[in-house]
Amino acid sequence: MAGGGTGGHVLPLLAVARELKRRGHEVLFIGTKRGIEGRLVPAAEFAIEFIEIGGMKGVGLGRLLHTIWSLPLSTLQVLKLLSALRPRGVFSMGGYVAGPTVAAALLQGVPVIAMEPNAAPGITNRWFGRFARKTLLTFPEAARYFPAGKTEVTGLPIRSEFFGMAPRRRDSVLRLLITGGSAGSRTLNHAARGSWPLFRAVNFPIHILHQTGRDAWEETRSAFAESGLAGEVVPFIDDMPGAYRSSDLIVSRAGAGAVSEIAAAGRPSILVPYPYAADQHQLRNAEAFEKAGAARLALDREMSGERLFELVQDVAGRIDEMGEAARKLAKPGAAERAADLLEESIDS
To answer: Please, what are the domains in the chain?
Structure first.
């Protein structure tokens, strides 16, 4: 399993790994110690080997030069590992962590199944996707970056709890979930605080559940307590499927994992793409959802309390239709399909 750095890469890898384990295969992850895989993979009771590699997009010159220097060394490290273990296949989520593993696998003739979670592929999948047996996609728009006939739209492997959620029957109070990811989002935190007086001024019936991240929690919680609005401000939500289940509308960044969970849950959303995401992939994800009628897109630079207030009012009148549009974008069974293709590549 090749990939790491963020939950958006590691969680789908874990979903596929669990399916492979269920089918009787042994699974090994290759990642970095500083990435989230260093914590999540051992916690899920899978083996992991660590390499030294860094990013190449949106980094300073010093880090870029270090990555270029470490790329052949880490590829050689993985080559030695693959020679010793003789794996039957590699599943790659792309990203800089996957680069050396995919390169080593291709040099040794090990079949590679890749996954591109975003509407705009990153460097690793653009470089190596043409050599993969198949590249699995979350967004059909990404197919144009790969050879014809070598892609398949499967959706992103996510937790099964997000699928099958019944459409919410909204009552007189709009239940709003705001989440900028596990570390929080400064933009969303500030916009939320700016919107509270506006909701209060018009007596808008709203209940807010806001995940701030740990750094902004104390300050935001204290301010919210004085707002007079109903709801709760928390640093982290352990049961995110439960939070989605009890929400009418979700305000979120637009990473592949986030938008895939929103689609699986069938919830309308206001998406605020992280402006520094590589190749603007979060913007492309949000554009695809807005085009489908499942979300409203707001750029990070324009997001304010006033803009959030306006968007919530707009979407509040279209909850059902936008939720249904989101549900149509959901694709269950992605982990199972990835496992199928890995087994087929082994047998071919």
So the answer is: 7-157+333-347 (3.40.50.2000), 162-328 (3.40.50.2000)
Instruction: Give residue-wise pLDDT tens across range 217-270.
Output: 999 999 999 999 999 999 988 899 999 999 999 999 999 889 999 999 999 999
d(CA 340, CA 85): 22
State the Cα–Cα distance between residues 26 and 22, nearest whole angstrom. Answer: 10
Could you tell me if 95 and 4 are in contact, meaning their C-beta atoms sit under 8 angstroms apart?
yes
Are the C-beta atoms of 185 and 295 separated by less than 8 Å? Answer: no
Query: Six-digit token pair at 103?
Result: 């390169």
pLDDT in tens, 303-337: 999 999 999 999 999 999 999 999 999 999 999 99
Q: What are phi and psi of 84, to 5 degrees?
A: -75, -40
Which two structure tokens, joined as six digits, stand for 302? 């324009």
User: Hey, which residues does 135 pair with through a beta bridge?
Assistant: 114, 151
What strands, in cross-sheet order, belong to the sheet with 206-211? 230-234, 206-211, 174-179, 249-252, 269-271, 295-297
Which pTM does this prediction carry? 0.80
Q: Are 318 and 268 in contact (CB under 8 A)?
A: yes
